[in-house]
Amino acid sequence: MGQGFAFDGLNFKVTSYQFIFAPKRGEARAVKGNSAAITGNMKGIIQKARKGDRILVDKIRAVGPGGSTTLLPMLIEIR
User: Fold this and answer.
1) Half-sphere exposure of 4 (CA within 13 A, CB side)
2) Residues near 59 by Cβ (< 8 Å), separated by ≥ 6?
3) Range 35-43 contact pairs with CB under 8 angstroms and sequence separation of 24 or more
């Protein structure tokens, strides 16, 4: 990030998360991730996403310098 960045060298390894696809129209779908990688199913959902759809990555569990922790969720809106 740059010299003096407060979190430089701080690493977390994601162990699990919940991927929720919430289309602008239709039913939301949830898929569980059991590693840091996204699954083929998730890739397919992302490729078919349309303007106004949202993807929420929630319940992110990770191991960091202080042990296991839950990270803040991320919301992505397709534009």
Assistant:
1) 0
2) 16, 17, 18, 70, 73
3) none
Neighbours of 63 (CB within 10 A): 13
For 13-69, what is each residue's pLDDT tens digit?
Answer: 999 999 999 999 999 999 999 999 999 999 999 999 999 999 999 999 999 888 999
Token couple for 73 = 């969720």
Indicate the length of the chain as a whole number: 79
CB 15 within 8 A of CB 67: no
